[in-house]
Structures are given as C-alpha cells and as structure tokens.
Amino acid sequence: MFDFIRNSFKKEKVEDGKSSKETEKVYSKKHKTSLNNKQKEKGSIPKPVVEDKCYYGLIGRFVREIVQATEALGEGVAIELIALLSASISPDKIWTPFGSNRTVIRCNALLVAGTSHGKGISSSQLGAFIKKAKVLNENLIAPIFRGALSTPEGVIAQIRDNELDNVNYPESTGNQLLVFDEEISSVLKIIQKTNNTLSNLLRKLFDGSAVEPLTKFNRIRCENPHVVVCGHITPKELMLNVREDDVYNGFLNRYPMYYAERKVLKPFPDEIPEKVINELSRELIDILEWANEKERKLSYSNCFKERWNSVYKEIATLGEGNEFEESMMARAKHYAKMYSMLFATLDKSEVIYAKHLEVALGWIKYWQDSVEYLFNIKNQEMKESLLNEASEKIFNLIKREIHANGGNAIGKSCITSAFSGKYSADLIQEVINDLASGDSPKLNVERLKRNSYKISMLDIN
CB within 8 A of 48, min separation 6: which ones? Predict the structure, then answer.
C-alpha cells in the first residue's frame, strides 16, 4: 500500500511531568476531531476533467463519433489514438532538435478507470477503425502487440535488428512497436521481483536507447527502438502495485496517467455507419502518409516561442515543494513538446504553433490533475478504510480485555502486543485518539506518568 506518500498519522502531543496532578486527562467528550469528521473533510480535490480543446483535429472526430454511439470513454479513445500515431510515425521522419540530439514523438499513456467503466469498449471501438486503416495501408500502421510484457528478451526479440540461426524467435517486426496492455498491473508486479530488468528496459525504450539483453549466446539487439506503451489499470491496482522506487527512479513519470469515469449508460449502442469508419480511417492514413513520406525537422513559430517562454518555468517546476508530485511530473515539459509536435503533425504542418502548445498544455494539466486526485483522494480512501477496519478490531479487543479485567481499566500494552506487525504504532494511537474523542466517544483515556495509559469504557457503552 502507498505508505510512502501518506501524511504520517499525527501523534497527540502531551507534556509529561509538567502537571502537579498524578494523572492527566488527555481525551474528552469535547474533543471534536473524530474519524467520522475526518471522513467528511474528504473531496477537497476535484476529479480531473479533460478539457474539450484536448480533443484536437482528427483525434476529436474519432472521439465524438465513438462516444456518441457507445459507452466508450473519450479519454481512452484519445490516448490510445495518440499512442498509435506516436508509434506509427517514424523517429527518423518527424523530429525537433534538442542540443546534439533529437526529440521525437513517443507518447506513452495509462488510462486509469474502474472496472466496467468503458476502458475495454474504448479500445475495441477504436480497434475497428484501426483494422480498416490497415486494409488501406498496413505498412503505415505500427505493429501492435496486445498482451502482457513479461521479459526484456521477449520485447527485444520482437523489434531486433539482427536475425539469428537455430533460434525459435518469431520474425522481427522492425524497430517500431505499439504495446497495448489491458492489464498493465501485471507489469508493475513483475518489476517488483528481485533482479528483474523489465523496468530498466522500459525506461530505455522511452528514451530510444539501444537495447540488448546480457545473454551469453544468441545475442539480440535493437539499435534504434521506437516502442510506445499504452495500458489500462484500475485505481486500486495502481495503489497496490506501485512502489516508491517506481516513482523516484524515473519509471512512472515516463507514463502519463489519466483518470476517467463512465459518463453515460447506453443499453442500446448506436451503429457507427461504415461511411464514417471509412472516412476517418482514410484521414488517419493520409496523416501517416504525410508524416512518413520524408524527413521533416519541425520548427517553432514565434507565437509558440512566446507562449513557451511564458509557461516554461511553471511546466519545468510542476509539483515543486512536493517531492512525490515533482517526481511524477518531472517529464511534463518533454511531453508538452511531444504533444505539440503530434498536434502539428495532425495538421500536416512543419511549423508548430501556439495553438498546438495550448492543446498540449491541456493534456499536461489533465495529467497533473489525475496524479493529484489519484494519489490523494484514492489514497485517503484507502487510509480511511484501514482506519475503519483497525478501529473496529481494536475497540473489540479493548472491550474483551476490560471485561476479562473485571470491568476495570486496562493499559495500552495489551493492545500494542495484540496488533504488533499488523498495524503501526502510529495507527494504533490514531484509533485510540478517535475512540476517545468526537461527538460520541466510546473510551475514557488518561495519560499516566512514564508514558503509560489508563483506558476504560464510558458508561454509554
């Protein structure tokens, strides 16, 4: 569970040895901070909402046609189409200079939505258009691997440059690949294993670095990989399977995450006319034909430069002061450039304008809002669930211990001993605080000398 981004359970500060009385009452009926009150404070962070401007050009037309006919998530359709376009545009064709290197379009994405909220519908509906586009020109659509990633060798074998004798590898599909995983939580589980190198491979693939597994025989290699990863995951799976290392080692910030919820229920989905499927598929192919016909070094217009200069500091320092959010958004400025390049490509423009940057900034905002929501609200819900569970179990134990003690007060040591290894000391203290406070306290708790406690039931119980 995501303990490393939680605010620590607050300890109640009590001065010891400064009272002339032998005992000090530290909790009373007038104490207002109860667990129930805390639950009511939830929801201060709004749910992330994608702005209409994010559905730019051809992407917007795909989204509108699919969403108005089905329960598909517009966010899901958009990010999968962005991933497909990214993988299908050769890194040798569309680029912008970055010092001695190049920036190419390679936009990963994670769609974070609950079970049965439309993730699969979004993918399957878009798949029908992609299938039609392949009929028109299969060579322009990047190979798509639908399934779970498991080993670095499997990925590299798929995109390898060299052919090997006497090895039962499938034929290489070239250096371009779109990996689409509807259960990407499995990847997060795999990279938790000791000595697993899949995380390192995925970081290298995003950077476009050469990849080659360290095997003694039958060495395989891809010098210029262009792999885009798009995946689905539920909020709970995300919380349970992401480690601290994944945040701070640069792995997770290579995968913008977008939270979405089902908008409508549509018992009888409408038919999308074949004419619409043909038209949009043809437009998709037209854009990819333009993008891949020759090398194009995109340039920035004066209006882009002016706008970029005005927002650069903000984009480059997103989350500053919050180590977690800062790490999660560390690649925001890189994605803002890639998105801008992609939206210019949708217009078949060799010049990137401020309007393309504005759309990109909309996606960056949606990404940041999703991170803030998922890792605060959802984590708070999990924390409260744990508190509720602990409160019930600890209170039942206290009742049993007091009953066994002839109705007399007990100390805290038996509680700590009973739940050692299950709940942290801070969580146990938090529960005791809550049970002895608020509008309807259940316990009377006194702090004695030498940090000991006297815990008894209130008469109302």
Answer: 258, 259, 366, 369, 370, 372, 373
